[in-house]
Specification:
By secondary structure, the chain is an alpha/beta fold. The protein has a single domain, classed as TIM Barrel (Alpha-Beta Barrel).
């Protein structure tokens, strides 16, 4: 698959869902109810992070039982993780950073991939590998909105999905930046609410977030 077609698929994903919940699934039983709660609230593009032993099975369960969900794998750190995302049938993959090995593997794959950056040097490596949309992580500690505004000067071709420290109160301000295509965050599905089975609160937060963005 060409770089252009991968980019087009990523653009379509981000246009359909400018808010991407960063989800850590603590137990497999939580996966499907959580995905259904977010979809009911209007958020269908989901990042399932590879941070727990059940993450892969959780992603598989959601893809099988919640067809409305567009499932991607996050915390992709190695080429093997990227292959896992591909083998599972994930629609996209994201990384908090970008090693040369991972960028080479992603460039050779037909997987829709969003590498992570935190500095101008990171971004230069990502752009050189053919990726023009990057995850800006950790967004707030790495300089916040001021940093993204500054990156827009020398890198007008780059767009970002900032994640890390963003919450319901400031998501709209981040999305207002011209080089921000989407925002991600764990605030949409807090682990305490997942463990408590308080999925109605997650649905309501998703609805409230989307309403605020409109």
């Amino acid at each position: 698959m060409t770089t252009e077609s991968r980019s087009q698929r990523l653009d379509a994903l981000l246009a359909a869902s400018p808010v991407i919940p960063v989800i850590t699934v603590p137990e497999l039983a939580h996966a499907v109810p959580l995905a259904r709660a977010l979809v009911a609230g209007g958020i269908t593009t989901l990042e399932i992070t590879l941070r727990t032993p059940v993450a892969r099975d959780a992603a598989k369960a959601i893809m099988a039982e919640v067809p409305e969900a567009v499932v991607g794998l996050g915390t992709v750190l190695t080429p093997a993780d990227l292959e896992t995302a591909h083998a599972l049938g994930a629609r996209f993959a994201l990384s908090p950073g970008a090693t040369p090995d991972l960028l080479r593997a992603a460039a050779a794959s037909d997987m829709v991939f969003m590498p992570g950056i935190a500095t101008p040097s990171d971004l230069m490596q990502v752009l050189a590998a053919g990726f023009t949309v990057a995850k800006f992580f950790p967004a707030v500690p790495a300089g916040g909105m001021a940093a993204l505004k500054a990156l827009g000067g020398p890198f007008p071709q780059a767009r970002f999905c900032p994640t890390g420290g963003i919450g319901e109160a400031d998501a709209k301000a981040w999305l207002a930046l011209p080089n921000v295509a989407a925002v991600g965050g764990s605030w949409l599905a807090p682990e305490a609410e997942i463990r408590a089975g308080n999925f109605s609160a997650i649905t309501e937060r998703a609805r409230r977030t989307l309403a605020a963005l409109r």
